[in-house]
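STRUCTURE:
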C-alpha cells in the first residue's frame, strides 16, 4: 500500500516555539522548552530567603520554646547527644566564605584528620577559669591595666563588628579557621550557633526577650554536655559560647548590670576556655623548633585567637561594671597571632612551605604575646631594641586580627 503523502510530519517547530513564534532547534527537548519548564518549577517553588526575626520568632515557635522544643537527639561526630535546633531557625547549613573572600571553603577532600594531636599546655590554665574573681579577691601577682577611653571604644566597635559578621554570615570570623567549617559540618556546636544567631540580624522591637531565651537555652545545652565533647567539639563549643555571649550583649541589649545573667555567662565562658586550653594550646613540635602537623597548628592557633578575643570582651564587660581590668599574666609565653599566610593557607603543601619559611625567619622562637606588653622592669636598652625589632618583623605579615590586637596593646601600653 502506498504511503500517504502526509505520513511524515512537516512540523518545523515544537509546541513551545510555535506558540512563541520563535526559531526551534528541533532537538528531542528544545532549549526553550527546557528553560520554560525550569522557570515554571522555580516559580512554583517556595521562595528561599535568609532567616529573619519575623520568620523565626513566630507564635508557634514561641509556644514550642515554652514547652521545651530543644529535644535531645543523637548527632554524629560528638561524644554525646546534643540539643537539636528547630527547623524554623536552621533551614540551611552556614555559608562561610574562604579566607581569601573567594566565596567558598577551600576543598582538599580527605586530607584533614584531627585525631591523635600532639599538643601541650605550658601555662597555668587555672588562672583562666578564676579570672572573674580577680576584682573581688585580688592576687598579689596580678597587674591592673588601664585602658584609655578611646581604646575601650575601639575594642567595643571591633567586637561589635564580629557580632555583625556572625549574624549576617557574609564572612568568616578571624578567630575561626576555615577548616573548622569543613570538618564535622553537620554536628558542630559552632555551625549550630552560626545558623541560630541569624534571627538576631534585625530583631523586631519586643522580640529580643524571645531571641535571648532561645540562645540561652542553647548555651545551657553546651554547658550540660561540654565535659563529654572531644577536643575539636570542645573548641567549637568555646567559640560558639563566645559568639552567643557577644550576641546577647551587642544585639539583644543584655548587660552585666541588668540582671540578665551575662556575668554568669562570662564565668561559664572562662570555664570552657579553661577546659579547651587544658587539652593543649601549643604544638609540642613548636617547642623543639620543628614543623607540627597542619591539623595541630589549626587547632592551637584557633584556640589562642578565641582566647584573646574572650579576654578583650571580658575587659569590656568589666569596664561596663566599673571593675578593674587585669593584665592576662597567665597567658605569658603563648605565641602572638600567626602571620596571614599560615592562617589563610588553603592546602597542606602551601601551609608546609609557608611554615618552613617561618622557621627560617624566626630561628630562636616566634613572637610571644607578652612581648607586646609593657617592657619588664630592668630591661636594658639593647633588650628594648631587640624586642622592638622582633615586633616590627612580626608586624610585616600579620592579618587584620593581629593588626587589631597590636593597636589595642600599643595604644594601651606604648612601646
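SEQUENCE:
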Amino acid at each position: 500500500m502506498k504511503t500517504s503523502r502526509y505520513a511524515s510530519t512537516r512540523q518545523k517547530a515544537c509546541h513551545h516555539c510555535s506558540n512563541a513564534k520563535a526559531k526551534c532547534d528541533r532537538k528531542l527537548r528544545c532549549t526553550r522548552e527546557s528553560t520554560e519548564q525550569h522557570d515554571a518549577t522555580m516559580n512554583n517553588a517556595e521562595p528561599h530567603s535568609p532567616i529573619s526575626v519575623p520568620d523565626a520568632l513566630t507564635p508557634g515557635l514561641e509556644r514550642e520554646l515554652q514547652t521545651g522544643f530543644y529535644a535531645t537527639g543523637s548527632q554524629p561526630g560528638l561524644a554525646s547527644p546534643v540539643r537539636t535546633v528547630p527547623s524554623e531557625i536552621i533551614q540551611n547549613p552556614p555559608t562561610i566564605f574562604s579566607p581569601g573572600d573567594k566565596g567558598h571553603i577551600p576543598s582538599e577532600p580527605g586530607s584533614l584528620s584531627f585525631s591523635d594531636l600532639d599538643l601541650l599546655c605550658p601555662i597555668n590554665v587555672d588562672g583562666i577559669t578564676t579570672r572573674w574573681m580577680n576584682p573581688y579577691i585580688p592576687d598579689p601577682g596580678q597587674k591592673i591595666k588601664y585602658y584609655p577611653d578611646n581604646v575601650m571604644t575601639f575594642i567595643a566597635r571591633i567586637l561589635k563588628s564580629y557580632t555583625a559578621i556572625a549574624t549576617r554570615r557574609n564572612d568568616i570570623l578571624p578567630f575561626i579557621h576555615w577548616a573548622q567549617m569543613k570538618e564535622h559540618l553537620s554536628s558542630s556546636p559552632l555551625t549550630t550557633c552560626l545558623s541560630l544567631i541569624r534571627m538576631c540580624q534585625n530583631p523586631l522591637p519586643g522580640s529580643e526577650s524571645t531571641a535571648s531565651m532561645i540562645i540561652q537555652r542553647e548555651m545551657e545545652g553546651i554547658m550540660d554536655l561540654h565535659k563529654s565533647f572531644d577536643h575539636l567539639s570542645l573548641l567549637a563549643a568555646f567559640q560558639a559560647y563566645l559568639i552567643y555571649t557577644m550576641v546577647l550583649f551587642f544585639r539583644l541589649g543584655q548587660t552585666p548590670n541588668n540582671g540578665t545573667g551575662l556575668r554568669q555567662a562570662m564565668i561559664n565562658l572562662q570555664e570552657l576556655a579553661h577546659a579547651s586550653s587544658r587539652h593543649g594550646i601549643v604544638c609540642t613540635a613548636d617547642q623543639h623548633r620543628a614543623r607540627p602537623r597542619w591539623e595541630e597548628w589549626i587547632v592551637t592557633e584557633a584556640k589562642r585567637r578565641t582566647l584573646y578575643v574572650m579576654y578583650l570582651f571580658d575587659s569590656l564587660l568589666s569596664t561596663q561594671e566599673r571593675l578593674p581590668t587585669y593584665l592576662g599574666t597567665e597567658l605569658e609565653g603563648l605565641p602572638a597571632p600567626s602571620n596571614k599566610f599560615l592562617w589563610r593557607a588553603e592546602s597542606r603543601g602551601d601551609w608546609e612551605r609557608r611554615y618552613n619559611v617561618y622557621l627560617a625567619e624566626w630561628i630562636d622562637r616566634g613572637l610571644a604575646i607578652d612581648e607586646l606588653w609593657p617592657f619588664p622592669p630592668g630591661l636594658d636598652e639593647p633588650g628594648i631594641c631587640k624586642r622592638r625589632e622582633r615586633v616590627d618583623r612580626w608586624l610585616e605579615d600579620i592579618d587584620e586580627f593581629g593588626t587589631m590586637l597590636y593597636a589595642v596593646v600599643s595604644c594601651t601600653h606604648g612601646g
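REMARK: The first helix runs from residue 15 to 20.
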